[in-house]
Amino acid sequence: MLCLGEKLGLQNMRILNPEVITYYKVQVFIPEANLTDFKK
Predict the structure, then answer these.
(1) Is the Cβ–Cβ distance between 5 and 13 less than 8 Å?
(2) Angle CA(10)–CA(5)–CA(23) in degrees, nearest 5?
């Protein structure tokens, strides 16, 4: 599978701000009733 840059024919692509720390992105669902407590 080609990335967008490859599909556009770009060359010499690199990540501008490489991450040096491994992290995981998570998505959290909070009931509206608990929303104000979560934001504190």
Answers:
(1) yes
(2) 130
Q: For the chain, which residues make up each domain, given as ranges?
A: 1-40
Contact 5, 14 (CB under 8 A): no
Give the per-residue pLDDT at 40.
Answer: 74
- Could you say which DSSP state residue 38 is in? H
User: Looking at the whole model, is its pTM more than 0.90?
Assistant: no
Query: Coil, helix or strand for 33?
Result: helix
Distance CA 37, CA 9 (A): 49
